[in-house]
Amino acid sequence: MPQAKDYYRILHVSPSATGDEIKNAYRKLAKQYHPDRNPGDSLAAAEFADIAEAYTILSDKESRKQYNFSRHLTAPEEYKKPIEQIDTLINRMHEVNHYLKYINEAHFSEETLFYSIIQVLPEDIELLSGTNETKLKIFLETVLQSVQPLHSGHTIKLEEKLHPLFAKNHWFYESIERLKEQQKKSERWEKYKVMLAVLMAIVLCILIFYEGGR
């Protein structure tokens, strides 16, 4: 039986959130991922659909009550069987990487990518330490692949989320650390590149000014 979507997590609210908190969260996320603001971005469109679906369920008292009841019944079984979840997690991360492979650079959104990765990572991520080692390695490799285009700040946040898995997967921790350093170097270079371009433009203007005055 496929795992039900966590609508509270999708809207970034707690299960005890009030109706107003749910509405405000929906408006904020819907504005961010609306197709009109992300033309051609299939991943943003998928996130928008999930956000709309979550709001539809949680904004109605009766449907929210039924959803909470179903979560209460299925949660114990889900937490006892993390091994059965790993294939689903791998497939979802493959979908994220598929997005990266085919998305037009002009339509790429780092925030959308970061949000999508966070959505895949389970809340009880520490339980994955007890799953099949080979499948867990495949999952972590796909996570590592998807994190490549992110800013180091986003990678640091993901590192905190993934921390429970580092003890038994030291190779993954080392890979994340190397990637984070590479991202920081790239960010520094981009910063200095802009400064260098501005400096060269100023020097060029000065040279043109003096040449014109001769």
List keywords for this structure.
single chain, 214 residues, mainly alpha, Helix Hairpins, globular
Tell me about the biggest sheet? Answer: none
**CATH third-level topology of the domain at 1-80:** Helix Hairpins
The helix/strand order is HHHHHHHHH
Cα shape: globular
Distance between the termini: 82 Å
Label the CATH architecture of the domain at 1-80: Orthogonal Bundle
What percent of residues are in strands? under 5%
Low-confidence runs (pLDDT<50, min 5 residues)? Answer: 73-84
Rg calc: 22 Å
Overall helicity: over 70%
What is the CATH superfamily label of the domain at 1-80? DnaJ domain
Instruction: Give the count of helical stretches.
Output: 9
* CATH classification, class level of the domain at 1-80: Mainly Alpha
Structural class: mainly alpha
Let me know the number of strands.
Answer: 0
Question: How would the blueprint of this fold be written?
Answer:
Elements: H1 7-10, H2 19-33, H3 42-58, H4 61-80, H5 86-102, H6 110-120, H7 133-147, H8 152-162, H9 170-213
Helix pairs in contact: 2-3, 5-6, 5-7, 8-9
How would you sum up this structure, described in words?
The protein has 214 residues and is mainly alpha-helical. It has a domain at 1-80: Orthogonal Bundle (Helix Hairpins), CATH 1.10.287.110. Helix content is 72%, strand content 0%. 19% of the residues are buried. Residues 73-84 have low confidence and may be disordered.
In short:
This protein has 214 residues and is an all-alpha fold. The chain has helices at 7-10, 19-33, 42-58, 61-80, 86-102, 110-120, 133-147, 152-162, 170-213.
